[in-house]
Design a protein that fits this description.
With 495 residues, the protein is α+β, with helices and mostly antiparallel strands. 41% of the residues lie in helices and 12% in strands. Strands 6-10-8-14-15-13-11-12 form an eight-stranded mixed β-sheet, with helices on both faces. The protein has a three-stranded mixed β-sheet with strand order 1-3-2, with helices on both faces. Pfam families: Amidase.
């Protein structure tokens, strides 16, 4: 199959060709592999391939799922595939899992054929994909610019049409942020909607959710049908949708006019660029043209408190992960982790269990604030990004900052850094860019980034919608309406 034909289809479209016998899974895999070979030297979106094993899978009878025979890329974090290495984005970590992550089992049951692992920052901690282990992933729309993170390699591979969708997960914006940077669609489902176990059944206290980044809205809906539902030992057990009420079959159902509040007020201290505000204004106009009631309304959230509470909880999980690596691979490997990771672990060791309990109360307050907001509005609309994707080297710590982090990571300075304001100063380039995405992880609410705007420089900016808990159906229906009104599928980067 020629790439010029392959790139005309989304995942469901390719699967339909397989069902009709017009193409084989092996042919699709070869086309995807050839496309990867052509563009990955420029993009560095993929860090590991396993084509031989994928070919063997493609030649066997595949499950009769909605995506039978479609090539797929897995993120190299949480989405473990038995026998293939997981690196967590780290230079020293190479773990060969003996079992699949539950979400990977569901990917396979849907008929997908994984053949590669995507690039990411170490531990998924950065909002850009520029790890020391694997080097930066390049934005397909402009080389030398960030793909976002932490699912940056997945988003870049989808935007470059290597695959119509790739796995991703989101603990602070890591589906929505790279989807916005790369001009593709990214849905973060409600807490508990999709499996995250068995090893990380409540990742980051429930802040993490997994779902693919896709080219089309219908692929995202069909994947949610395939992935949703409780798993063994789940901390947040959400029932799977009934077949008659699947997200895909109801995607094009008539959508009543929605009441949508919009805000350009960041929920973490940040400066929002004029271009991001222009993108928001364009989306507001589009929604009004479609008949929705849209008005400016800002959630009542303490921005300063929210980022502090998030950092206290997440740094504790990072400290625990570093301890785990030390126990398995030794102190030398743990000590070779990136300075930002070691610094985050130091923060986690500085806070007490009482600090964490109090921070989680802060999470609950944000959830209540959003519940009040969403009792008045069906959705909240914000920019996904505070500005266009950054050039490489802007977001990660400088050489001097890295030196300081490595020098001080053994000292329990977390509380001092927090109280003095130095912590935000050191983390601002990351935290400020999560100004609109972080709330969705703290609350567990579903959120999506829709690619509706490109800057004069040719870089994408997404529009984020946050909905009520478990209201993905209506959100996807709106995304589909926007996709029809202002299509993005045919917009492709010139590679």
């Amino acid at each position: 199959m020629k790439f010029s034909e392959y790139c005309q289809y989304d995942g469901l479209g390719l699967a339909e060709l397989v069902r009709k016998g017009e193409v084989t899974p092996t042919q699709l895999l070869h086309t995807a592999a050839q496309r990867l070979e052509a563009v990955n030297p420029q993009l560095n979106a993929v860090i590991h391939t396993f084509l031989t094993a994928a070919e063997a899978r493609a030649r066997k009878p595949l499950p009769a799922g909605p995506f039978a025979g479609v090539p797929f890329i897995l993120k190299d974090l949480l989405d473990d595939l038995a026998g293939e290495p997981t690196s967590l984005g780290s230079a020293q970590v190479r773990w060969f899992p003996e079992q699949n992550a539950e979400i990977v089992n569901r990917y396979l049951k849907a008929g997908l054929v994984p053949f590669a692992k995507s690039n990411l920052p170490e531990f998924g901690l950065m909002i850009t994909t520029e790890s020391k282990a694997f080097g930066p992933a390049h934005n397909p729309w402009k080389l030398g610019y960030s793909t976002g993170g932490s699912s940056g390699g997945s988003a870049a591979a989808v935007a470059a049409r290597v695959v119509p969708m790739a796995s991703a997960n989101d603990g602070g914006g890591s589906i929505r942020f790279p989807a916005a940077c790369c001009g593709v669609f990214g849905l973060k489902p409600s807490r508990g909607r999709n499996p995250t176990g068995p090893l990380d059944a409540e990742g980051w206290d429930g802040a993490i959710a997994g779902h693919p980044i896709t080219l089309s809205v219908r692929d995202s809906a069909a994947m949610l049908d395939s992935l949703a539902g409780p798993e063994l030992g789940a901390g947040f057990a959400v029932p799977a949708p009934a077949p008659a009420q699947s997200f895909l079959t109801t995607l094009d159902a008539p959508l009543k006019p929605l009441r949508i509040g919009y805000s350009d007020r960041p929920m973490v201290p940040a400066q929002v660029s004029p271009e991001a505000k222009a993108a928001l204004a364009n989306t507001v106009k589009l929604l009004k043209d479609l008949g929705h009631h849209v008005e400016e309304a800002h959630p009542e959230i303490d921005a300063e408190q929210m980022w502090q509470d998030f950092m206290i909880v997440i740094s504790g999980h990072t400290a625990a992960k570093v301890n785990q690596i030390k126990a398995i691979w030794g102190a030398k490997v743990a000590g070779s982790l990136e300075p930002g990771t070691l610094s985050a672990a130091m923060l986690g060791r500085s806070f007490t269990s009482a600090d964490v309990a109090q921070a989680k109360e802060g999470w609950h307050q944000v959830r209540h604030a959003m519940a009040r907001y969403l009792s008045r509005y069906d959705l909240l609309l914000t920019p996904t990004l505070i500005g266009e994707p950054a050039a490489h080297g802007v977001i990660p710590p400088s050489a001097f900052e890295s030196f300081q982090m490595r020098l001080g990571h053994r000292l329990p300075m977390g509380k001092l850094l927090m109280k003095s304001g130095l912590l935000f100063s050191l983390s601002e380039r990351v935290l400020s860019r999560m100004a609109f995405t972080l709330m969705g992880n703290v609350t567990g609410l579903p959120a999506m980034s829709v690619p509706l705007h490109w800057t004069p420089n040719g870089l994408p900016l997404g529009s984020q919608f946050v909905g009520r808990m478990l209201d993905e159906r209506r959100m996807l229906q709106l995304a589909r309406q926007l996709e029809v009104a202002q299509p993005w599928f045919e917009r492709r980067p010139l590679l």
